[in-house]
Design goal:
By secondary structure, the chain is of the alpha+beta class. 16% of the residues lie in helices and 30% in strands. It has helices spanning 21-29, 42-50, 151-157; strands at residues 33-40, 75-79, 82-93, 98-106, 115-120, 138-145. Strands 1-4-3-2-5-6 form a six-stranded antiparallel barrel.
Length: 160
């Protein structure tokens, strides 16, 4: 990922030499991805949580407030079955009353209000982590929203 994917583009300065400068200067002119918030569909979250009480296949456990299950979680984000990005964090916001993720999406899908699909859990056969229980991936509907999600944070104290 680049600083532009992560929303740090405004902090990149080209007033000195560094490894990768030429590549970042090129990317800075036309970043192809953007950091967004995904607001997960409440019914889909509740359905996934309901599988915790099943004996058979269960969704990845959803913990509160932060449901991050590994050091570097990369959950797929889809549009019409095609991978358009990834989620790097998931958690519950008590202030907003929603399960939210931070995601990096291709620009053409990063507009607030767009509907996408969040794929919760590790891809089958991707290896095993001793801290991650056996589970099946679950698709959840999600709505693209700005970063930060809270309107007061975007408008009252954030400058860029």
């Amino acid at each position: 990922m680049t600083p532009y994917d992560l929303g740090y583009g405004p902090t990149v300065k080209f007033d000195h030499d560094f490894v990768g400068r030429e590549a970042l200067e090129k990317i800075s002119k036309n970043p192809r991805r953007k950091k967004v918030t995904l607001a997960l569909n409440q019914d889909d979250v509740m359905k996934a949580m309901g599988t915790m009480f099943d004996k058979g296949s269960r969704a990845k456990y959803i913990d509160f407030p932060s449901a991050v299950y590994s050091t570097w979680p990369y959950d797929k984000v889809l549009k019409d079955g095609k991978t358009i990005g990834l989620s790097t964090w998931i958690g519950y916001s008590s202030n907003e009353g929603k399960m939210l993720t931070l995601a990096i999406l291709d620009n053409e899908h990063a507009e607030p209000g767009n509907q996408v699909t969040f794929v919760w859990g590790e891809q089958p056969g991707s290896g095993s982590k001793p801290t991650v229980e056996s589970h099946v991936q679950v698709e959840m509907r999600a709505t693209v929203a700005p970063v930060p999600y809270a309107e007061v944070a975007r408008e009252a104290y954030r400058t860029t």
